[in-house]
Amino acid sequence: MKSLTVLLITSLLFSLFAAPDSSAQEQPSCAKTSFQIVVPAKHTIKAARENRSKTLKMLSGKQKISAVSRNNNWYTVCISGKTGYTEAAGTSEVFNSKQLKLFSKIGRKKEVHQILAVTGSKAASVKVNMEAYEKVYGSWRRSLKVMKGVIGYNGFAGSKKEGDGKTPMGTFSFGTAFGSSAKPAGVTWPYKKTGANDYWIDDTSSKDYNKWIHYKGNPQKRWHSFERMNHPLYKYGISINYNTNPIIKGKGSAVFLHVWKGENSRTAGCTATAENNVRSILNWLEPKQNPRIFLGTTDYLEKL
Predict the structure, then answer these.
(1) C-alpha count within 13 angstroms, C-beta hemisphere, residue 31
(2) Is the peptide bond before 28 cis (omega within 30 degrees of 0)?
């Protein structure tokens, strides 16, 4: 009888302190919603990312609901305190005035369907936020995650000069993607693997200024200043088309997006972020979407 009592007490304690159901832990948390979407009338909320899955709720009228994230053509949403999924078709995302300004000024051209916004709070900012947007089903939507980045050690420049340690403000297209490692799987953007004979020239006296040159000779005899393209921080990167057409000597050169040393580091004028972020951006960029990168302060964005 005593052993049975001990067994019952042990079972009771186990049931009280046992780990919660793992299936509940796997569900995305409604507490982590990050933005809102507008859904049309008669829009369904599903139990999974497929149309044949169970319908959790049918929305009868146009309304705003909280979203956790978007995965391709499906949103993870929070409705009545529960997690569900709804198709992106027919919906739109809610944006603030600065985001709408970005779309109206940079995305007004019909062919621009991707924007990477790199913004700092003020001109002297070194740390920046990087946000990706793309046009899907005819409207702008968030893409990737919000990423941390760093820029030039002297912040942003309204008018950049060679060697000023600043990152130029403005909107630019992208050039060639590159890296000392092989082209990552899934990247459709033009990519060149770098080697020991690849240089980007920042010598203002050279006809090669602000150009990528492949040269097998002694670079120190040909140029006063240059960057080696097989640098460790250039494991993955992409050139930004700043001062390229036309090239004006002394206006700045070698402006890239590349891998950082860390979140407390800074660059000589490029934009840098974590390696996995650079890879994600390279995988996200599509030539047919004619992407643009915006570099600048929030105030500069307001003045566009």
Answers:
(1) 0
(2) no
